[in-house]
Amino acid sequence: MKYGEVFTKGIWERNPQLVIGLALCPTLAVSTSVSNALWMMLATSFVLLGSNLLISSIRKIVPAHFRIPIFMTIIAAFVTVVDRLLSAYRPDVLHALGIFVPLIAVNCIILLRGEEFAQKNGMFASALDGIGMGIGFGLTITVLALVREILGANRLFGYVLIPGLEPAGVMILAPGAFFSIALMLWAVNALKSRRNRK
Amino acid sequence: MEIKVIVTILLGSIFINNYVLARMLGVCPFLGVLQKLDSAAVLGLAVVFFMTLTSFITYPIYKYVLAPNNISYLTTIAFIIVIGSLAQFMEMIIRKYCPPLFQALEIFPPLIVTNCAVLGAAVINISSGFAGPDVTLGMIKSVAQGFGGGVGFTLALIIMVGIRERLELADIPENLKGAPVTFLTAGLLALAFFGFSGLKI
Questions:
Q1: What is the mean pLDDT of chain B?
Q2: CB within 8 Å: A25 and B25
Q3: What ipTM was assigned to the predicted interfaces of this complex?
Q4: Chain A residues close to B180, C-beta within 8 Å
Q5: Is the minimum CB–CB distance between B184 and chain A shorter than 8 Å?
Q6: Interface touch A106/B115, C-beta < 8 Å
Q7: Number of domains in chain B
Q8: B74 Cβ under 8 Å from any chain A Cβ
Q9: pLDDT tens digit string along B100-158?
Q10: Who is most buried in A35, A53, A56, B153, counting CB within 10 A?
Q11: Is residue B30 part of a domain?
Q12: Structural domain for B44, as ranges
């Protein structure tokens, strides 16, 4: 197995949102500002890393028909760790992300990585896979957040870009989220089909 | 007085804060799994039932077990376990007593458990101040919120699947087919639902 490939496939080849088509709720909801997106990337990567490591380490003793509840509990435990850490050190971030911190626990991509990768592979590969997937997931949110924050709030990292310009407020709301992910998926499809034609 | 509060919560969670189109919860099942209107309706009904039941069970757990013992940091784990075991339990009951329904619902249990809308409803119930001093009212409010959220989800799902059935016949660019055009439609729907935020209740 090539470890480099395991690490990088989450970023483009098997990107959680753009290729697999999962984990869209947090993507749409959290991409209102770039700093939110980066914090979400950090939190999700941590949970993915932890759950992948733990699932991989107990993969030989987990009964097959009872594995989903065990995996869900492991994931929820790591989400609780993130929640406690944020509320201790960065309560403002916890407040900004709102209910999407506990909802990391039902992020399909984490369960999918546990099912598809961690329970079949060793701990080192699983850790790499978790981090790679987390980064891929986070990069998609960040790109989306860049577009939405610039167009919808006329800001970047909270700083006003062009003073006096009225931003297109709808981009920061739900419709803007749907439109921007639609355009992003369209661009990705176009890139892929162009590559296939060559 | 109470009736008015409950109607407000219902209207709010169905239209104004629609789970899919305004809160962006439960987008995954919305996207591509379902093609037929009737199976969308069945999934919708299952979600309404399940979200109501989840609200009914998770609220007392938070109120009487987690909050008084100062272990409310265990909320996520407790809710996940409750939702997971409820789904398993429902699956067993349906398989035993109503096999045809089980056939129709085959792919649904995982869809329901990993549906952010279900856990979302449970978390929204405890974070939106329903856990006030008046316990029975908090309970009714939570159940109304869960039920309304489920109905809102079903409404959005059915509208969406109806539009998708028409889109099958439309001539859209190759790269726009599938997920992108679904999201564009969802964006337009969200804009339409935005009109409800002017509703005065």
A1: 81
A2: yes
A3: 0.85
A4: 182-183, 185-186, 189
A5: yes
A6: yes
A7: 1
A8: yes
A9: 767 766 655 666 666 778 888 888 888 775 555 555 567 888 888 899 999 999 999 88
A10: B153
A11: no
A12: 2-24+37-198
